[in-house]
Specification:
Elements (H helix, E strand, L loop, with lengths): L12 E7 L1 H12 L3 E9 L1 H9 L3 E5 L7 H5 L4 E4 L4 H13 L3 E4 L12 E5 L2 E5 L6 H16 L2 H20 L3 H13 L1 H9 L2 H16 L5
Parallel strand pairs: 1-2, 1-4, 2-3, 4-5
Antiparallel strand pairs: 6-7
The protein binds ligand PQ2 and nicotinamide-adenine-dinucleotide.
Ligand PQ2 binds next to helix 1 and helix 5.
């Protein structure tokens, strides 16, 4: 079973095989998020050539995946992307990735892939990733569009997020013990004045109620 996780891309070394349409999209996605990316391919798209001359985190290696020394290229790799159509190359890359303890994103085989690159969007600081794990990318894209529309029209969520994000930072500054902070989030959430302000889209009132609750705890007026 695949787990959804959010991973800091700056911590990743990614090796992409194939510098065509899909390999380019993957390489640029990882690069834009901060990863160090190497692309191994017989030929490279113009986009990749341009990006490589502009970034020292993108390295292009011209070669055939079937014959190149994969172990030296993969020794520090965390994720290996397979975006070559060639079956034999795929098999050889999979074996080398496993020998080098890297996870595989196989863009040519949704069943085998260990890492899925989902359809993604961000609305008012809420990030969404959707996948059908290869059953139908078109459907995943439609699902994402529906979710985005829902979030865009939801003023309550945007208000709640702004107020509670502020409350979290404030609480961390006045209540040092994490275990003491934890139940207070739910106390704020249960407060009818807080929820009423959230429903009205009144960020300032929501923050005020949250602050009142936090201050009472910080002053030891509540158990
Ligand atoms: C999100 C995105 C990220 C990205 O590519 O960077 C992505 N696919 C995108 C586009 C796209 N891909 C395909 C179409 C044609 C329509 C269709 O598939 O319906 C379209 C066009 C479109 O959707 O518009 C074809 C396709 N997709 C996969 C295979 C292999 C297979 O099925 O075995 C085949 C060849 C099928 C065949 O050979 O017939 C597999 C995967 N593609 C995934 C991600 C993963 C989860 C997908 C899911 O949720 O189901 C997964 C499992 C693995 C992975 O690669 O990580 C990117 C959006 C780019 C953007 O938003 O700009
Ligand atoms: N996951 C997805 O979203 C998705 C979407 C469309 C297609 N695909 C699949 O991904 C694969 C790649 O599709 P594409 O449109 O990028 O193809 P493409 O032809 O544009 O690119 C293939 C690249 O692989 C390189 N290559 C081929 N054999 C090689 C080898 N032995 N060693 C090194 N490099 C080699 C080529 O030079 C080329 O740059 C196809 O199998 C396709 O079915 C996946």
């Amino acid at each position: 079973m695949r787990l959804p996780l959010w991973i800091e891309a700056k911590a990743l070394n990614v090796v992409v095989f194939g510098g065509g349409k899909v390999g380019t999209r993957r390489a640029l996605k990882f690069l834009d998020a901060g990863a160090r990316v190497t692309v191994v391919s017989l030929e490279f798209s113009d986009e990749l050539l341009k990006a490589a001359s502009a970034s020292d985190r993108l390295c292009l290696i011209k070669g055939d995946a079937r014959t190149i020394d994969l172990d030296s290229i993969l020794k520090d790799a965390h994720i290996v992307v397979i975006a070559v159509p060639d079956e034999e190359a795929r098999r050889i890359i999979w074996e080398a990735a496993k020998r080098n303890n890297a996870l595989v994103n196989d863009a040519t085989d949704a069943e085998a892939t260990e890492v899925v690159v989902p359809y993604e969007a961000s609305v008012n600081s809420i990030r969404v990733a959707v996948t059908t794990e290869g059953k139908s990318g078109v459907t995943a894209r439609h699902a994402l569009q529906k979710i985005v529309k829902l979030l865009e029209n939801d003023r309550e969520l945007a208000t709640m997020l702004e107020a509670l994000w502020w409350a979290k930072r404030y609480m961390k500054s006045v209540i040092p013990d994490g275990r003491a902070r934890f139940p207070i989030y739910f106390e704020i959430e249960r407060d009818p004045r807080f929820m009423e302000a959230v429903r009205r889209g009144d960020v300032e009132e929501a923050k005020r109620v949250a602050k009142e609750i936090i201050d009472a705890h910080a002053a030891g007026r509540k158990p």
